[in-house]
Backbone:
């Protein structure tokens, strides 16, 4: 039997959630319409929330962490793209949001940054990617210059491919990380299999949207100054997900994740 305090806390939580949704519908009408449009689209559409409803799950697609491959394998589409967990809070009712299985994949910040830089320099996926790269990245002659001179700029960190990963997982009130499972890019086959089993899917994972030059070891692209700069800029991601530059702590990361201690420190 549920305790009175639990029922009261759930009631307060749900009431706050509904108030946030109502306020959002008034203050950000265009965004609210976009969220409703995503919910109305059929499950066979490229961008749709219907597969999330059907599987009672939410996948937060952090850029350059194999999200395209995961989305296509589990849902047959792109879900809602790079939507943050705070936006899913607004897209779904309280009962849906809190009961759905919410998961993501994250990636070593040094590796992800190198991949994102190569991805955009090669033209990205969309016209907006190419335009941004031509305007913002063309001024840097090489990756080292970009890291040391451009990474800290607001125009860089506000771009979806360079934004810190934990920001995609932060709740609307900016107090919590309401994620049930944090998949690790470095443990992709095993973590994907666990998620697929949880969702009752038998899908295989195909590597899609591969970045040109992805076979190059990211560690070869860095020197000491660059390593330190990335560590400073993405210090919160590194702390929350347990990363180090060399990727030597994977076993410890998995242990922390399985003990529910990632995103809790």
Residues:
């Amino acid at each position: 039997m549920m305790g009175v305090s639990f029922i009261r806390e759930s009631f307060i939580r749900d009431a706050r959630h509904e108030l946030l949704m109502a306020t959002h519908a008034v203050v950000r009408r265009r965004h609210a319409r976009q969220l409703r449009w995503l919910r109305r689209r059929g499950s066979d559409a490229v961008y749709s929330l219907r597969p999330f409803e059907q599987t009672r799950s939410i996948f937060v697609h952090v850029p350059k962490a194999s999200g395209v491959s995961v989305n296509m394998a589990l849902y047959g589409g792109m879900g809602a793209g790079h939507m943050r967990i705070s936006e899913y809070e607004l897209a779904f009712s309280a009962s849906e949001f809190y009961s759905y299985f919410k998961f993501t994949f994250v990636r070593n910040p040094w590796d992800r940054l190198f991949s994102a830089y190569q991805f955009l320099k090669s033209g990205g996926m969309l016209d907006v990617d190419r335009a941004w790269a031509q305007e913002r990245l063309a001024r840097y002659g090489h990756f080292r210059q970009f890291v040391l001179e451009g990474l800290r700029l607001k125009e860089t960190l506000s771009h979806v491919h360079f934004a810190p990963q934990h920001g995609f997982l932060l709740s609307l009130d900016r107090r919590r990380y309401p994620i049930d499972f944090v998949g690790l890019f470095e443990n992709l086959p095993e973590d994907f299999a666990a998620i697929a089993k949880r969702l009752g899917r038998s899908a295989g994972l195909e590597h899609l949207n591969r970045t040109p030059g992805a076979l190059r070891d990211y560690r070869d692209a860095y020197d000491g100054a660059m390593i330190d700069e990335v560590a400073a800029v993405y210090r919160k991601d590194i702390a929350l997900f347990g990363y180090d530059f060399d990727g030597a702590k994977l076993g410890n990361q998995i242990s922390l994740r399985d003990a529910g201690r990632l995103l809790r420190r």
